[in-house]
Amino acid sequence: MSQALPLTPDYDVWPIEANLTKVLITPRILTVCWSDGRESRYHSIWLRENAADETTVNPATRERILDLSTLPSWPEIAGAEIDEAGALCVDFAPEGRRLRFHPGWLRAHDYDNTGDPEVPLVPVKTWKRDTEDGPDSLDATGLLDTEAGSEKEESILAPALASILGKGLVRLRNLPTEPDSLEAIAGRIGPVRPTNFGMLFNVKAKPNPDSNAYTSIALPPHVDLPTREYQPGMQMLHCLENSVEGGEAVMLDGFAVAEALRERHPQVFTTLTRVRWCFANTAKTTDYVWYSPIIRIDERGQLCEVRIADFLRGPLQTDFENVEPAYEALMVLQKMLHDPKFAIRFTYKPGDLVIFDNRRLLHARDAFEGTSGHRWLQGCYMERDEIRSRYRMIKRAYQQRKATAEAALA
């Protein structure tokens, strides 16, 4: 009976894209050759820390329990071979321990060849109104009638989550219109983030509003809750009723606007990434204030966040000489936000749901006539992490089904 492949130090399923054919060692470096000609190098300490045995990870949780500092000395490689199952076997000194590594997992974590480890799950694509491959509008009929975690549920969620991750937005149609059904819909993705507006919030005109959203006036392009240290990463808006005149929804890709600024007005872009504005929501019962640039980039210069909400900006507090350049940059941005080529417009229909990246997408609304009918959206927030986690779980389930089917045919 042939030997089975070893466990991996996680719960995932790792397909074997190429087989191990040769292994070379020095005390601190192990080199493997693959059947497709690739060579991969791994450090001895990296291999030791990422083993899947019960001295390294808890088999129940797959979380690491090894403390490297408790090893007798720096782990070195005393020997290595490829076993009959195709796994890599490594002998570590001075422990005298032999550990096995799954070839699919090793290949997927080949840091010697894969470059940037933070490649997004789905390629990020900016869009404008006339972009051919713009935001997706998908049929979500029966989502809540499917079993959670089922293949049918995943067939609806997989393209929706991919659209959010890549384009920052998805529009779903034909969902239930019962009040509070949004909580069950959101639960198919992950936990909701409560705020001072509640677990779910109702977007409709009401007396004594604590937000402009709860009026019938027009709202300019904005993100929600830029007043928070960590503004929510995702937002959902679910239409339950809409019979008013006006109130058309407007959505813009904030990353597309920022990239246009970087190309056409580089000094403006730099100013908006440098000057920290005050964002404030000083309501009757809460007082949230945070300071941040309007555009945030990471250490590689990649866009990671926009904070745009004119009605939630407090007084600018910055160095004296920054004030006029900051306002000049702000007004260039504001004019660009009014350029119709960046925006898509649509009218909500009952049963529609939009899910969007609240730190990328800007949403707006035309004014509506409050006495002409009823307009009721329910909304909630969650984090970007939940979208990524759910998407990974769907991919994992797909790989598991594929591996099971292949094993049955073998």
Summarize the structure in words.
- The chain is of the alpha+beta class and 410 residues long.
- The protein contains eight helices and 22 strands.
- The protein has helices at 44-49, 103-108, 151-167, 181-187, 254-264, 266-274, 323-337, 384-409, and strands spanning 20-25, 29-34, 39-43, 76-82, 88-93, 97-101, 136-139, 169-173, 201-203, 219-222, 234-242, 245-246, 249-253, 277-282, 287-292, 295-297, 303-306, 343-346, 353-357, 361-365, 368-369, 375-382.
- The strands form seven sheets. A six-stranded mixed sheet has the order 7-8-19-11-22-9.
- The longest helix has 26 residues, at 384-409.
- The radius of gyration is 26 Å and the shape is globular.
- The two termini are 15 Å apart.
Give the topology.
Layout: E1 20-25, E2 29-34, E3 39-43, H1 44-49, E4 76-82, E5 88-93, E6 97-101, H2 103-108, E7 136-139, H3 151-167, E8 169-173, H4 181-187, E9 201-203, E10 219-222, E11 234-242, E12 245-246, E13 249-253, H5 254-264, H6 266-274, E14 277-282, E15 287-292, E16 295-297, E17 303-306, H7 323-337, E18 343-346, E19 353-357, E20 361-365, E21 368-369, E22 375-382, H8 384-409
Parallel strand pairs: 7-8
Antiparallel strand pairs: 1-2, 2-3, 4-5, 5-6, 8-19, 9-22, 10-20, 11-19, 11-22, 12-21, 13-18, 13-20, 14-15, 16-17
Helix pairs in contact: 3-8, 5-6, 6-7
